[in-house]
Fold this protein.
Amino acid sequence: MAMMAIDERTNLGGLEMATPLATASGTFGYGTEYLGAVDYSSLGAITVKGIRLCEWPGNNMPRHVEVPGGMVNAIGLQGPGIEKFLSHYLKQYSEKVSPKMIVNIWGGEIAEYAEVARRIDEAAKTTKEGAVIGAIECNVSCPNVKAGGHTFGQDPTILNKLVTEVRKATTLPLIVKLAPNFPDIRPYIKACEDGGADALSMINTIPAMVIDIENRRPVLANRTGGLSGRGIHPVAVKVVYDAYRATKLPILAMGGVYDARSAIELFLAGATAVALGSAIFTSPSVVGEVRQGILDYCRRHAFKAVKDLTGALEQ
């Protein structure tokens, strides 16, 4: 008997994906670093490391530390800047990689976000290499230099202004990546909706700190960082569950996805697509394994399309 075909096609706010799996920003370089190690055919999109206008060195070493259930990092958004990204990394990606690219962007003020988005939009529309660009993801967990260092994502009013200006700068699908540490996520979702976002991305890492008790010093040079890995997965499920009930925007979900079960949890909570991050560091084959596990689950439970899993919790 022939195995039942499962429709994996996914539409993430206008970004057409051949499969519902992506990579999380900051964990997959600029898209080509895992060639030969990862099953790229299992990916519907690849999110590249954060890009701002200028080259950025990131934080001092040490910048990451392993902890039970995950890792804490404070890389500091190291990146080459928009010029080098367009001239080198985008060209390299377009020559070697087929899944659509999601470009993660950030900046120190709203005008910088908008200008980076404009440059990416222009490249997508006018260059051969830019044809691989499928969407822009705004990282709003960055210090706002004009607001005393508070991050853009901490204030719904500022968040709305940021999304609105980026929306004016591009017609590409616009995804906003939200932090998980809100008492109530609804005002932030509304700020994104009103600003013209096409999708949401969640969750970002959770603020964390590790102390070397023998030296009585923080382990990271930056003192604090962001926790990722298995330990944050239940938090991600809860945030996605809440967001799904507060918005019609599609959700790219991530946080502690190490196997098909954890990915399926996020789909059932309300995700349209799921991204893998920390798991790929230790097991690049996990991408293909997660995809196969999702397909097997759909067959066992008579789902003809992965999209039918979204929010499919029994009442």
Summary: DSSP finds eight helices and 16 strands in the chain. Residues 62 and 221 are 6 Å apart (CA to CA).
